[in-house]
């Protein structure tokens, strides 16, 4: 610890960075956090990781605990935690929405000591609150699904039957909703179905139009905006498969050219400049064949599941965010590998099972589709997280089967 502290006492921040002595404190969990950990580890940037004690990220070769106790550290205790650190400075990199909110809300003195390349608190709140985000899309004229705020169960019951034809009941806060319900939202087709579901959800919620189409209709524009409002990196990715179906996450995707989704790119550029935005982003769009427009669904105002894949394709967004947080020059990245694929194999197996039941995908076609693709979790220079996660998943599945058998 003494060696780290002495490095941090260098008077010039450029010298600090040149000697690799300004560390990153990364906060989050699972796939996003392991991606950030690996990127910074490979970049040889000093790193401390804050995550749950059972998280597979802890098995990474680049995992390192902060120099103070972080047992059960929660976002609402971030200020106290940072004040206790024996570090002169460090860059903060939040990898979940709750940590993002906490970092954006730090007192000014701590924010200067622990800088982060993120947007202002007001902009972040707009991005993570799904209703405020829907209003921003409306105000900026960004194509998006029709969205209605439902204030109460009584409000929901007062709506006519036609309001529930292929709609999504979505939360205002994804992270809180996912913790409780283990899903992103609920797809409903009739009012009776919505009323049944609403008995177990907290209001207010949103009722949003569900855009029909296969997983390949979903595209992502991902990149980085620096402190001067410059978009310094931009990458396009297309979803090929997802799980769970309809309201899930990508299990297989590939990079595509930005020129293939120009409308989405232009819409996002306008939105980010209107915000105004700073930091890493991943924006999701879905092509609506009913009116031939890309509709923006949501945006992650931070690193996301496939941030490591972006780095493998040539877009090291975490390094850009690190330099930007320290007010150092950021060199834009203009090129990335097009046609490269990434698979989250454990989840893609479930996507395959669903497609197989509908005779849409054979075993041979499934294997061929991800053969040669990057593994979202698997990394040959950091195998233990994938092994740890796999063992944990197998144990969990076995325990569920045993419990079911014993009932």
Structural class: alpha+beta
Number of strands: 14
Shape: globular
Low-confidence stretches: 1-16
Compute the gyration radius: what is it? 22 Å
User: How far apart are the termini?
Assistant: 52 Å
> Class of the largest domain in CATH?
Alpha Beta
Largest sheet: 7 strands, mixed
Give the CATH superfamily of the largest domain.
ATP-grasp fold, B domain
Q: Remind me, CATH topology of the largest domain?
A: D-amino Acid Aminotransferase, Chain A, domain 1
Quick tags:
407 residues, alpha+beta, Rossmann fold, Dna Ligase, domain 1, D-amino Acid Aminotransferase, Chain A, domain 1, 3 domains, seven-stranded mixed sheet, four-stranded antiparallel sheet, 14 strands, globular, disordered N terminus
Question: Please, could you describe this protein's structure?
Answer:
This protein is α+β, with helices and mostly antiparallel strands and 407 residues long. The chain folds into three domains: 2-122, Rossmann fold (3-Layer(aba) Sandwich), CATH 3.40.50.720; 146-209, ATP-grasp fold, A domain (Dna Ligase, domain 1, 2-Layer Sandwich), CATH 3.30.1490.20; 215-375, D-amino Acid Aminotransferase, Chain A, domain 1 (2-Layer Sandwich), CATH 3.30.470.20. It is 39% helix and 20% strand. It contains 17 helices and 14 strands. It has helices at 2-7, 13-18, 30-42, 78-84, 97-104, 108-113, 121-128, 130-139, 153-158, 174-181, 191-198, 262-274, 307-312, 317-325, 345-357, 363-370, 384-406; strands spanning 24-27, 47-50, 91-94, 147-150, 167-170, 186-188, 205-209, 218-225, 231-243, 249-256, 279-288, 293-300, 341-343, 374-375. Strands 12-11-8-9-10-13-14 form a seven-stranded mixed sheet. A hairpin with a 4-residue loop joins strand 11 and strand 12. Helix 5 (97-104) runs antiparallel to helix 7 and helix 7 crosses helix 8 (130-139). The protein is globular, with a radius of gyration of 22 Å. It starts with a helix and ends with a helix. Residues 1-16 have low confidence and may be disordered.
């Amino acid at each position: 610890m003494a060696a780290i502290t002495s490095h941090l006492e260098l008077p010039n921040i450029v010298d600090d960075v040149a000697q690799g002595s300004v560390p990153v404190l990364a906060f989050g969990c699972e796939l996003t956090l392991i991606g950030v950990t690996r990127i910074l580890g490979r970049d040889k940037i000093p790193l401390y990781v804050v995550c749950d004690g059972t998280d597979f990220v802890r098995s990474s070769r680049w995992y390192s605990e902060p120099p103070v106790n972080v047992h059960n550290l929660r976002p609402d205790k971030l200020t106290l935690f940072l004040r206790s650190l024996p570090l002169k400075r460090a860059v903060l990199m939040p990898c979940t929405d709750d940590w993002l909110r906490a970092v954006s809300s730090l007192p000014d003195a701590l924010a200067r000591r622990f800088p982060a390349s993120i947007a202002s608190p007001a902009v972040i709140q707009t991005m993570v609150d799904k209703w405020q985000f829907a209003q921003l899309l409306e105000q900026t004229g960004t194509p998006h699904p029709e969205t209605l705020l439902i204030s109460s169960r009584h409000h929901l019951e007062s709506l006519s039957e036609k309001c529930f034809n292929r709609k999504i009941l979505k939360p205002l806060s994804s992270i809180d909703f996912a913790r409780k319900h283990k899903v992103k939202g609920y797809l409903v087709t009739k009012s009776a179905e919505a009323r049944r579901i609403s008995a177990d959800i907290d209001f207010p919620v949103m009722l949003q139009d569900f855009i029909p189409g296969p997983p390949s209709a979903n595209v992502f524009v991902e990149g980085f905006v620096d402190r001067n409002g410059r978009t310094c990196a931009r990458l396009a990715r297309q979803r090929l498969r997802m799980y769970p179906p309809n309201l899930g996450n990508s299990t297989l995707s590939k990079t595509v050219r930005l020129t293939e989704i120009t409308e989405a790119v232009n819409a996002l550029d306008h939105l980010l400049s209107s915000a105004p935005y700073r930091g890493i982003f991943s924006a999701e769009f879905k092509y609506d064949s009913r009116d031939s427009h890309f509709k923006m669904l949501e945006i992650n105002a931070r690193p996301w599941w496939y941030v490591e894949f972006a780095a493998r394709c040539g877009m090291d967004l975490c390094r850009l965010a690190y330099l930007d947080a320290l007010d150092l020059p950021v060199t834009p990245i203009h090129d990335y590998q097009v046609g490269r694929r990434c698979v989250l194999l454990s989840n893609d197996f479930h996507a395959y099972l669903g497609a197989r039941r509908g005779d849409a995908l054979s075993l041979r076609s499934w294997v061929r589709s991800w053969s040669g693709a990057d593994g979202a979790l698997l990394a040959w220079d950091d195998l233990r997280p994938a092994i740890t996660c796999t063992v944990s998943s197998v144990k969990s599945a076995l325990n569920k089967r045993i419990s079911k058998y014993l009932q």
